[in-house]
Design brief:
7 helices, Pseudouridine synthase, nine-stranded mixed sheet, alpha+beta, 309 residues
């Protein structure tokens, strides 16, 4: 049975995001499974997975805001910028103070250029940087513009500061920790990281891999369905419309339709019934909408232009 939906996983430390995707593919016996934002192996927390036809929705989450909680350890830097790496520097003994760390963190709030970690998925001549780093090859990365909307230092215990951060897509908290250590002069690295939110998703709706496996083994379809985020909660900034059978048939075939009740919307979610998301449609003019992405019963297809109805 094809499962179309969004499933929130609480990723454990030690697994890559791809590892989690592969496990869920096997558990649910689904070939089409993807994720909405990579987490490093060290990191834990919220990892939204998209399954079946809804894998095509990933394009709408590429710029999603993310929220993290974690810790930064001062005293030495590592080659990966986190606690999984090998120490590369041992600075002078520095007794960091809470007020000083909070003042330092304030410098990173806003829009700025950030150098990605050498052990990252950034491509260099088509090859991920981490693959070159593992072979000890020279890596030349370019700084990219990122944004940290909030960075709150929650406390300090010895050489380790705890924090909460809200960031725009593409921001590396590993680089933030590394750069903070350079500014202090004693080195630092990301000791732990947990993602608590991404776009409209939060940890309160997350499931462990063990929970997903147990539910799938129960064979109860209603229990399996209940693990998935209700489709009407997806992309909340897009209004919903429930199509009549006739309009739904036109949308499924990729034909433009009139949706008078949504004349001011730019993009809308089109449903057949309460749970079946059949398309994301874009307004052409007035009340005329054309399916941007059609999610059919078999597989998602790029809609072809058709006759308005």
């Amino acid at each position: 049975m094809l499962m179309n939906g969004v499933l929130i996983i609480d990723k454990p430390s030690g697994l890559t995001s791809h590892d989690v995707v592969n496990r869920v593919r096997r558990i649910l016996q689904q070939s089409a499974v993807g994720h909405l934002g990579t987490l490093d192996p060290l990191a834990t927390g919220l990892l939204p997975l998209v399954t079946g036809n809804l894998t095509r929705l990933a394009q709408f989450y590429t710029s999603s805001e993310k929220t993290y909680e974690g810790t930064i350890r001062f005293g030495f830097a590592t080659d990966t910028y986190d606690s999984d790496g090998a120490p590369v520097s041992v600075g002078p003994t520095v007794n960091v103070l809470l007020e000083d760390v909070r003042g330092l963190a304030a410098r990173f709030v806003g829009v700025f250029n950030q150098m990605p970690p050498p052990f990252s998925a950034k491509k260099i001549r088509g090859v991920p940087a981490y693959k070159l780093a593992r072979k000890h090859q020279d890596i030349v990365l370019k700084a990219v513009q990122v944004e940290i909307k909030e960075l709150e230092i929650l406390g300090l215990e010895g050489d380790t500061a705890s924090f909460r951060a809200r960031v725009a897509s593409g921001t590396y908290m590993r680089s933030v920790a590394h750069d903070m250590g350079q500014q202090v002069g004693c080195g630092a690295h990301l000791a732990s990281l947990r993602r608590t939110a991404l776009a409209e998703f939060g940890l309160s709706e997350a499931h462990t891999l063990e929970e997903v496996s147990a539910t799938a083994q129960s064979g109860r379809n209603e229990a399996i369905e209940a693990m998935f985020v209700h489709p009407r909660r997806l992309l909340p900034h897009f209004p919903c419309v429930t199509a009549s059978d006739e309009v739904a048939a036109h949308v499924r075939s990729g034909r433009a339709v009139n949706l008078p009740e949504l004349s001011q919307a730019k993009l809308v979610k089109v449903f057949a019934g309460q749970r079946e998301l059949i398309a994301i449609a874009t307004r052409i003019a007035g009340t005329l909408f054309h399916p941007k992405i059609v999610l059919t019963a078999a597989s998602p297809v790029q809609a072809a232009k058709g006759t308005p109805r």
